[in-house]
Design goal:
- By secondary structure, this protein is of the alpha/beta class.
- The protein has two domains: 107 residues, Urease, subunit C, domain 1; 305 residues, TIM Barrel.
- The chain contains 15 helices and 17 strands.
- Strands 1, 2, 3, 4, 5, 14, 15, 16 and 17 form a nine-stranded mixed beta sheet that branches. The protein has an eight-stranded parallel beta sheet with strand order 6-7-8-9-10-11-12-13.
- Helix 4 crosses helix 7.
- The longest helix has 18 residues.
- It starts with 5 loop residues before the first strand and ends with a helix.
- It binds (4S)-2,6-dioxohexahydropyrimidine-4-carboxylic acid (DOR).
- (4S)-2,6-dioxohexahydropyrimidine-4-carboxylic acid (DOR) binds next to loops.
């Protein structure tokens, strides 16, 4: 019998494990899960009473833009990860369209250094793909702290863009990890820009960046990925038309959807929120939202990521199309998705698959994403019954607004625990920030080699 005291016990909660829901305790030692169920010892330095609450594996948001370096007036690694922690998120994967873009090993190391002692959550960074680094991707993608490569096929915020098949194919042929793709067809975007150039109603955003813009790019990248024998991850899928294509290519493609595309619809969102609802790819009509829900139900969707893309209120208030695309979301992920669970649109175990196990499978994360002995002691503790309004005063993101402000939801994060340390309890951050780089199978293998 092992009677060594634990560092932390989560007591009496409903655990969401790979085997389903199960009542029991979790004992943590040295930042890892040491025991699950009826514990051998009840002694611990810290005990969290979880009766009436659900204990989920730590939620991982695999698509956030935290804007550091270069655009810190919108967000930085401290504010972005604080927002994540308050929302119950234990790890984030951050996008490369900063200033400068993340394109070299030195850019990656710079982000890791900036995160040290300032990031509340664990973190990893995407390496951007551009013509200038296309020859070095096989080694760049395995830099420590790198979650993989990200390619923009259509231009959005920042200067990253690979719109020609030749460079795309070259990138797909260099390296082995799953490549994340923003799939909008640049040529079609340029062709259709005349629809909105010079000023238009923001409700025309999904008309400029139309269904065919998304479908074409997804079809192209699937074809190129198959030629290259490379796995791809299609980010923020928004159209009914892409779903059968993706379903027919599940051997090479995984799929992300965002909470906002599962919640908002056009034209209502543009009438209510104006340019604050503008993002790429756009929020579309209800038939697309229903197709995304069906794709979740049918298992075509692998992961939910927020595409947290903050811009200041002043920037967003510019006249369309000078207004930047993107909306914050990392902090509202759990309230919004738990509300969908309560409304019966998906089960809690399916949500955990999309937010914890899904990221682990797609990116080859080491020892995160499930409640299992030996795994990192990352937990998102939630109250499924809590009914609360999303208010600006709760938000920690620098931009200070959310498209979901004023919405009353059922389900709320109560505690965020990263490697055994409680970093958020009852809306309070508990410091100091000690987030660490996420580890990946590939980088472990590189160290061995
Ligand atoms: O709306 C968006 N905003 N889509 C993207 O792809 C980029 C993001 C941003 O960085 O602002």
């Amino acid at each position: 019998m092992n009677a060594t005291p634990f560092d932390l016990i989560l007591k009496g909660g409903t655990l969401v494990t790979p085997a389903g829901l199960r009542a029991g305790d979790v004992g943590v030692r040295g930042g890892r899960i040491a025991e699950i169920g009826k514990l051998e010892s009840e002694a611990a330095a810290e005990i969290i009473e979880a009766r009436g609450l659900h204990v989920l594996p730590g939620v991982i948001d695999t698509q956030v833009h935290f804007r550091e370096p270069g655009l810190e007036h919108k967000e930085d690694l401290a504010s972005g990860t604080a927002s994540a922690a308050l929302g119950g998120v234990t790890a984030v994967f951050e996008m490369p369209n900063t200033t400068p873009s993340t394109l070299t090993a030195a850019d990656m190391q710079d982000k890791l250094r900036r995160a040290q002692g300032r990031a509340w959550t664990d973190h990893a960074f995407f390496m951007g793909v551009a013509a200038e680094n296309a020859g070095h991707l096989a080694s760049l993608e395995n830099e420590p702290g790198c979650c993989g490569l990200k390619v923009f096929m259509g231009s959005s915020t920042g200067s990253l863009l690979v719109d020609d098949d030749e460079t795309l194919l070259q990138a797909l042929r260099s390296g082995r990890r799953r490549m994340a793709v923003h799939a909008e067809d640049e040529a079609r975007l340029r062709e259709r820009l005349a629809l909105v150039r010079g000023g238009a109603d923001v409700a025309r955003h999904p008309e400029w960046r139309d269904v065919e813009t998304a479908r074409l790019a997804t079809e192209r990248v699937l074809g190129l990925a198959r030629r290259a024998g490379r796995r791809v991850h299609v980010l923020h899928v928004t159209t009914a038309e892409e779903i059968p294509l993706l379903a027919a290519n599940k051997d090479i493609a995984t799929v992300e959807v965002t909470p906002q595309h599962l919640t908002l619809t056009a034209p209502e969102c543009y009438e209510r929120l104006g340019t604050f609802a503008q993002m790429n790819p756009p929020i579309r009509e209800a038939r697309h939202r229903e197709a995304l829900w069906r794709a979740i139900d049918q298992g075509v969707v692998d992961v939910i990521g927020t595409d947290h893309a903050p811009h200041t209120r002043e920037e967003k208030a510019r006249d369309y199309p000078a207004s930047p695309s993107g909306m914050p979301g990392v902090q509202t992920l759990m309230p919004i998705m738990l509300d969908h669970v309560n409304a019966g649109r998906l089960t809690l175990t399916r949500l955990v698959d999309l937010l914890c196990a899904g990221p682990q499978r797609i990116y080859g994360i080491v020892a995160k994403g499930r409640i299992a002995v030996g795994y990192d002691a990352d937990f998102t503790v939630v109250d499924l019954a809590a009914r609360r309004e999303i208010t600006a005063s709760w938000l920690a993101a620098k931009c200070g607004w959310s498209p979901f402000e004023g919405m009353t939801v059922t389900g709320w994060p109560k505690a965020t625990i990263v490697r055994g340390r409680t970093i958020m309890r009852e809306d309070e951050l508990l410091g100091p920030p000690q987030g660490q780089p996420v580890r990946f199978l590939e980088t472990l293998a590189r160290k061995r080699g």
